[in-house]
Structures are given as C-alpha cells and as structure tokens.
Design a protein that fits this description.
12 strands, binds nicotinamide-adenine-dinucleotide, alpha/beta, Rossmann fold, 12 helices, 20% strand, binds ketopantoate
C-alpha cells in the first residue's frame, strides 16, 4: 500500500524519508508541475540527521495527477490543508485513510468535512524538523507523535509500519484532548516569544503573564470537557520553557522568516471556543490583539 505524502516540507519529508528507508512505497504529491520539475532537478529528498545525510529519490507527482489514493499523509500547514485535500478528494478510494499532521485545531474538522467517506486519523507531534533549502530537511528534535481517531475505532494495522520505519508514536483514544493540550502549550508560549522577541527560555522573565494565560487556558479546557488536558498545565508550560530554553518557538521562527503563522488554529481557535462557552478570557484576547497588531506591522497575515 503506497503512502501518498501531501506536502514535501519539513514534517512531510521527515516522514516520507523514514518510511522509504524502511522499504515502504512512498509517493510525494507536490503543488504543481513547476514544483515537480524542481524536485526532479534536486534528485530527491535529502534528510540531514546528526550522524548522516542521505538523499532519497522518492517518486513524486503533482496535485492534478490521476492515480488513486488509499493512504494519504497530509503534511501541509493548517491553513493549506483543507484546500489541498479538496483537490485530492476525487482520487480517494472508498475507505481511504488520511493522517492529518497539522498543529492546533480547526483544520482537521475542515478537512474531514471535505472527505466524508474517508477515515481521518489525527496526529499531534513533538518531533522537530526544519527546511534548509528546497527538498532538504534537518531532523532537529527527537519527539513522538500521538495518533488517534476522534470517532470510536480500533488502531490501524499500519502502525506496525511506523514502528518499522523508526517513527516514534503512540495510539490514543483521546486525540482531541492531546491536541487541545498541545494547543494550550503553544498558546501560552509561542505568541509571547514573538511579542517579547525571545527564545522560549526568555519567558522565565514573563512569569506573571505566562501564569495568567495558563489559568485561563486551564479553565477553557475544563469548560470544553477536556479536564485531563487542563491538569498541571502551568507546571508543564514551565517545564517546556525550561527544557526548550535555547530554542525559538515555531511561531517565532515563522515571523522571523516572514512566513504566515498558524495563529487561526491556535490562539484564534482558543478565543473562539471561549466565546462559544461564554467564558471570559481577557488575557488571551489581549494577547490575540497584540499578536495581530505585531503581525500586521510586519506585513504578515493576521489570520
Ligand atoms: P512546511 O511549510 O515545512 O511544509 C508544508 C509543505 O506543504 C510545503 O512544502 C508546501 O509547499 C506544501 N504545500 C502547501 N500546500 C500544498 C498543496 N496544495 N499541494 C502540495 N503541497 C502543498 O510545514 P511543516 O513545518 O512541515 O508543518 C506542517 C504541519 O506540521 C504544520 O501544521 C505544523 O504546525 C506541524 N508540525 C510541524 C513540526 C515541525 O517540526 N516542522 C512539528 C510538529 C508539528
Ligand atoms: O511546540 C512548540 C513550538 O514551538 O511550536 C513548543 C516547543 C512546545 C513551544 O510552544
């Protein structure tokens, strides 16, 4: 069974190269024929790891190819996922499976609505990768990926293939809770690193702001029915700030590189959920406003 991988960016390349290395059939789906030509010019995907750098000449096609798809790893940014999957919907076999790697919340529901007959498996990953140049990715941080189906269903058999490929993962029956927890961590850390222009560790100087956000996020998680995601949230945020003190958050890196952020699927999603629950979140709302002002002053999209 071929693993079609939509999006040959950081995380897509990290998955595609490891699956291919394990001898599994992988096929990349690139945006258009120009990207496909550039990919062939590069000769494949390069994975840079601490001990080795290897080139993987994986097969590839563009978004408007016609081959049927049974298993699709969706590895584009949250704001691109729905549109890209909609383009592929006519090519999905009955009973096709999608694995959605997007951070935050909101894009998964939008994708699932476009492919009502497919099974959507959601992922929440703490692995780290970044692109050095086109079609070359550096594996920057060990981590793991939670996978789960928001509908009651048993784990897919292909989890064994992830094990064979050395992709650390765990199955969970509570994937939405895992995604909410990660969203809360990202909301408490990422925007502040942008606004204070600092590495994650710099937030130890902003302890009151972090504490106030964690308090509101914890309440929000509880009111949305994700009690376990609220447990010890502030303590975990402090741990992550300490453990990743030398790192720049993903949002910081996006802003520094002049790239669009995933704010709509993180802070905006949290603020909208609070509005629906009629829960006051003054600190989150102020943060959302400050971040929008900051992005717009730099000519970046505010959604
Ligand atoms: P990325 O920008 O490096 O890669 C996305 C790729 O998707 C790009 O190559 C882009 O050209 C491609 N793409 C976009 N629209 C497309 C389309 N219509 N057709 C084909 N390709 C298309 O992004 P990333 O860092 O790999 O992040 C992907 C998702 O994974 C994000 O939601 C991110 O938050 C999440 N994530 C990333 C990391 C990481 O370390 N990079 C870690 C955890 C979670
Ligand atoms: O996930 C992260 C990110 O930078 O996106 C961490 C390291 C947890 C900071 O929020």
């Amino acid at each position: 069974m071929t693993w079609h991988v939509l999006g040959a960016g950081s995380l897509g390349s990290l998955w595609a190269t490891r699956l291919a290395r394990a001898g599994l059939p992988v096929r990349l789906i690139l945006r258009n024929s120009a990207r496909l030509a550039a990919y062939h010019q590069a000769g494949g995907l390069t994975l840079v790891e601490p001990q080795q750098t290897s080139l993987y000449p994986l097969s590839a096609e563009s978004l408007d190819a016609h081959t049927p798809i049974q298993r699709l790893l969706v590895a584009c940014k949250a704001y691109d996922a729905e549109e890209a999957v909609a383009r592929l919907a006519p090519r999905l076999n009955p009973g096709a499976e999608l694995i959605l790697l997007q951070n935050g919340l909101g894009s998964q529901d939008a994708v699932a609505a476009r492919v009502p007959r497919a099974r959507c498996i959601l992922a929440s990953s703490t692995e780290g990768a970044f692109r050095n140049e086109d079609f070359s990715v550096t594996f920057a941080g060990q981590g793991s990926t939670w996978l789960g189906d928001p509908l009651p269903a048993s784990p897919p058999l292909w989890l064994e293939q992830l094990t064979a490929a050395g992709i650390p993962h765990q199955w969970t029956d509570e994937i939405n809770t895992k995604l909410w927890r990660k969203l809360a961590l990202n909301c408490a850390i990422n925007p502040l690193t942008v606004l204070h222009n600092c590495r994650n560790g710099g937030l130890s100087q902003q302890a009151d702001e972090v504490a106030a956000l964690c308090m509101e996020l914890g309440e929000l998680l509880r009111s949305c029915g994700h009690n376990s995601a609220a447990n010890e949230l502030h303590a975990e945020v402090r741990r992550v700030i300490e453990a990743t003190a030398a790192n720049y958050s993903s949002m910081y890196q996006d802003v520094a590189a002049g790239r669009r952020t995933e704010i709509s699927y993180l802070l905006d999603y949290a603020c909208n959920a609070a509005f629906r629950q009629q829960q006051p979140v003054p600190h989150l709302q102020a943060l959302q406003q400050r971040l929008r002002t900051h992005l717009s002053a730099r000519g970046l999209p505010t959604t």
